[in-house]
Amino acid sequence: MTNHHKIVLAFIAIIISGFFAWTYLSAFYSPFWTKLGAKISAGHNPVAVSELTEFSWDTVCLFSGYPLDLDETLKRVGITITDEHRSDFEWLKTTSDVWLIFFAENGRVISVSRFPYSSINIGGRQLMIGGIGCNKMTSSVFAVDDDHIFLTTEKDLSWD
Questions:
Q1: Quick one: three-class SS letters along the chain?
Q2: What is the pTM of this model?
């Protein structure tokens, strides 16, 4: 193999690696996470999830890898996975230490964000993610407690 071929192959490997890195990291640079980070950093706690989105939705759900009750929960809250998002849910069912946050409107999934870590850096703090399940828009909040950030409802918060 000539030096020219080695350089071309190295360049292709860098491009492919960069694509996969961007795929995983881009979830954290989305407007949603940027807005959440800014609000938490400014001392807002909890933060209404409705303040973080620019599209219409009525239900938000958060699940981690290998969700045992995903299908049951979706059925209970009346959410249907469309073909457009089916691969996101199949990925979640076969992978550990990953998270999927998704939004639904009128029972249909309309937006999905995958992220490959069980924690997120917000305002220089590494926070473990929690709060598996689905909540309605009118009551959904992200709250920070010590070293965790979790999806919950205003009603379920207790700051004892």
A1: CCHHHHHHHHHHHHHHHHHHHHHHHHHHHCHHHHHHHHHHHCCCCCEEHHHHCCCCCCEEEEEECCCCCHHHHHHHHCCECCHHHHHHHHHHHCCCCCEEEEEEECCEEEEEEEECCCEEEECCEEEEEECCEEEECCCEEEEEECCEEEEEEHHHCCCC
A2: 0.74
- Total number of residues shown for the chain: 160
Give the burial class of 72: count Cβ atoms within 10 A of its Cβ; 0-12 exposed, 13-18 middle, 19 or more buried: exposed
For residue 10, name the pLDDT band (cuts at 50, 70, 90): low
Number of structural domains in the chain:
1
For residue 55, which of 132, 116, 114, 113 has the smallest C-alpha distance?
113
Look up residue 37 and give its two tokens: 């980070």
Rounded-to-integer distance, Cα 32 and Cα 12, Å: 32
Which residue range forms the structural domain that includes residue 38? 3-156
Looking at the DSSP assignment, which residues form a beta bridge with residue 127?
120
